[in-house]
Write a structure and sequence with these properties.
By secondary structure, the protein is an alpha+beta fold. The chain has one domain. It is built from five helices and seven strands. It has helices spanning about 25-40, 60-65, 90-95, 125-145, 170-185; strands at about 15, 20-25, 40-45, 70-75, 85, 150, 185-190. The strands form three sheets. A three-stranded antiparallel beta sheet has the order 3-5-4. It has a two-stranded antiparallel ribbon with strand order 1-2. A two-stranded antiparallel sheet has the order 6-7. Strand 1 and strand 2 (about 20-25) form a beta hairpin. The termini are close together.
């Protein structure tokens, strides 16, 4: 969320998007958009509303975002809780409100160091695993924060999804570990302020 020029406070503000569209957002909704965009999809039960309680797709932030066409609720087979994904408009809003960042040495490499955002459901065979990725991130983020690290961005490495165990079956835990390696590589040491952050942006 640090690299986004979008509302961060508790009050809703008018935000101008692409194609002359106007939205109304508050900080908790910005966090939801950036978190869902970074992780492709997030289970509703893993998200928090503006008051810090469990998010509800029928009310609060999620309903407000859905009514503005920025997110979509999907029901995955075998899951009681729906998942949230960005719409194309949701991703476009994030992309159009990036803060300009100048790197110390390689200005032309700026895009390589930006958080990537995703819209819609991708790779249907991997949806079951993707539901678990954000939870794995939260566990690892807490461990890193306890060591004084700050997470700048998350890189989802779909190439690693072909990893298999010696028996030939997909090793979901191993895949998650490999994906988290990119996350760990993009941390910087800094004093921990005691607050838990829900997303990398």
């Amino acid at each position: 969320m640090r690299e986004l020029d979008l509302p961060r406070g508790p009050e809703r503000e008018i935000v101008h998007g692409a194609r002359d569209r106007t939205y109304i957002l508050r900080g908790s909704e910005t966090r939801t958009l950036s978190t869902v965009g970074a992780f492709r999809l997030v289970s509703v039960r893993d998200l928090r509303d503006h008051h810090g309680g469990p998010a509800d797709p029928r009310s609060g932030d999620l309903r407000h975002l859905r009514e503005q066409g920025l997110i979509r609720t999907e029901q995955l087979a075998g899951h009681r809780d729906p998942v949230i994904v960005l719409t194309k408009d949701g991703r476009d809003l994030l992309e159009s409100h990036r803060r300009e960042r100048v790197l110390d040495r390689h200005r032309d490499d700026r895009q390589k160091h930006q958080q990537e955002f995703y819209a819609g459901l991708k790779k249907p065979r991997e949806l079951e695993h993707d539901v678990q990725v954000y939870r794995a991130y939260l566990r690892e983020a807490k461990r890193l924060a306890d060591r004084g690290a700050r997470i700048d961005r998350v890189v989802l490495d779909y190439a690693s999804s072909s990893a298999t165990t010696s028996g030939g079956s997909t090793n979901a835990i191993g895949i998650a570990t490999m994906r988290m390696a990119a996350l760990i590589a993009n941390t910087r040491r800094q004093p921990f302020d005691g607050r838990q952050r829900s997303g990398p942006c």
